[in-house]
Design brief:
Layout: E1 12-20, E2 26-34, H1 38-59, H2 74-92, E3 93-96, H3 104-113, H4 115-131
Antiparallel strand pairs: 1-2, 2-3
Helix pairs in contact: 2-3, 2-4, 3-4
C-alpha cells in the first residue's frame, strides 16, 4: 500500500478506456490524461462554459426581424457536437496509444467512427479528477 504524500502532484495519469465496438467486441485505447486537481477541473469547466456563453451572446441579434430562421439539421448539430467534443478532448489528453497522432482531426475521426469512445474518454476524466477513481 502506498503512502499518501501531499504536494507531489503528478503531471499526468494513464487510463485504458474500453468501448463496445459495433461488432460486439471490445476495443481499447490507453489515454494519457492531463492532471488537474478538483478545483482546477472546476475552473477548467467554468472557462469552457463562459466561452460558450460568450459565443452564443455574440450570435444574438437585437431585432427579431434580422434573425435568420433555419430549419433544424441533424447533420449540422452532430457536426458541432463532434467539433466541441474534439476540442474538449484535446484539452484533457496529452497522448494516446492509437496508431495516429493525437490531433483535432484524429479525435474527430474517433468521435465519428466510435462515438462511445469519445464519451468514455470524457466521462473517465471527469470521474478521475472529481471523484478520484482511476480503476474500473
Amino acid at each position: 500500500m502506498a503512502k499518501i504524500t501531499l504536494g507531489k502532484r503528478p503531471k499526468n495519469f494513464k487510463k485504458t478506456i474500453s468501448v463496445q465496438m459495433l461488432d460486439g467486441t471490445t476495443g481499447t485505447v490507453e489515454c494519457v490524461f492531463k492532471y488537474r486537481t478538483k478545483k482546477e477541473y472546476g475552473e477548467f469547466i467554468d472557462g469552457i462554459t463562459e466561452a460558450a456563453r460568450a459565443s452564443e451572446k455574440a450570435k444574438e441579434t437585437t431585432k427579431v426581424e434580422e434573425a435568420e430562421v433555419k430549419p433544424f439539421s441533424l447533420a449540422e448539430y452532430l457536426e458541432k457536437s463532434v467539433d466541441a467534443g474534439a476540442d474538449y478532448i484535446l484539452q484533457i489528453l496529452e497522448g494516446w496509444n492509437l496508431d495516429v497522432e493525437l490531433s483535432k482531426e484524429s479525435v474527430e475521426d474517433l468521435a465519428n467512427e466510435y462515438p462511445g469512445a469519445a464519451a468514455a474518454i470524457i466521462e473517465t476524466y471527469r470521474t478521475a479528477v472529481t471523484e478520484g477513481r482511476l480503476g474500473n
